[in-house]
Description:
Oligomer: single chain
Number of domains: 2
Structural class: alpha/beta
Number of strands: 12
Amino acid sequence: xxxxxxxxxxxxxxxxxxxxxxxxxxxxxxxxxxxxxxxxxxxxxxxxxxxxxxxxxxxxxxxxxxxxxxxxxxxxxxxxxxxxxxxxxxxxxxxxxxxxxxxxxxxxxxxxxxxxxxxxxxxxxxxxxxxxxxxxxxxxxxxxxxxxxxxxxxxxxxxxxxxxxxxxxxxxxxxxxxxxxxxxxxxxxxxxxxxxxxxxxxxxxxxxxxxxxxxxxxxxxxxxxxxxxxxxxxxxxxxxxxxxxxxxxxxxxxxxxxxxxxxxxxxxxxxxxxxxxxxxxxxxxxxxxxxxxxxxxxxxxxxxxxxxxxxxxxxxxxxxxxxxxxxxxxxxxxxxxxxxxxxxxxxxxxxxxxxxxxxxxxxxxx
Length: 366
């Protein structure tokens, strides 16, 4: 049994993927080829914004967003500690300080009630994480940010395809950032990511930073990087894109089916009103998480833990490299209890029933 089944996905779409890849191999424009622009136009239309800028990874996308907002040494960015390290790593890479506030226990997203207490004269942005596949309350988040004149960067690495009150993830904040890492809901066959915005000047800056700080060859008005997206990876995503809405619907159906069968046996994901959930990971909470994972593994059921240690507990963010506001009890509790079950659009009901039955037996002590 696969935790995430990329092989079946390739077999389903093999003709389209192979044709797209061979088209790149034949025209030979491997860097910034025509597929890159084609994909950017398609994704901007999908999300519902004016601009999409594809980049080399989801980590690059966050760093480029911060640089485009002129965030650097002496500045602070408010975010959460229960996430993958990239979220805070990029803040440190531009010379700024991550400021950690706690999460909500049900959604695992940023606790909006804690944001204003974290805002200081040095705060330059708020960077929520749409963890596991659903968005925080972006209307309220944007209101808080607007009251303080702050931009919002949605770290949507796990929520591409999700919606909130009919609006798509990546399209409801100042900048949306996502990842195309293969295991993501919309993944390529290597590293990749994208930025989304309706702000033309920010889009121009992000495009320039992506390509060594300039839009014209040999002219570099900004300090940039090599953050370009690979043409072959763009081709892979173009082949997958026509199937993506079906996959999103299947993720929602399979996630709801898990929840229906597991509610009352363990803590299941909560989907906030107005939200859809793409279940980048189907994550439950159980006591004695590690023992449960070991028993499921022995039964042939793969699991994963996202994430066993919070960022404020990582050595790199000690010694003044970050700031903590209030207690982070919910983040710490989640990191000790969460475990993710197999989730992908091709998960059969038979396999899902086997997973659920095995989990029931483990939780019953059998």
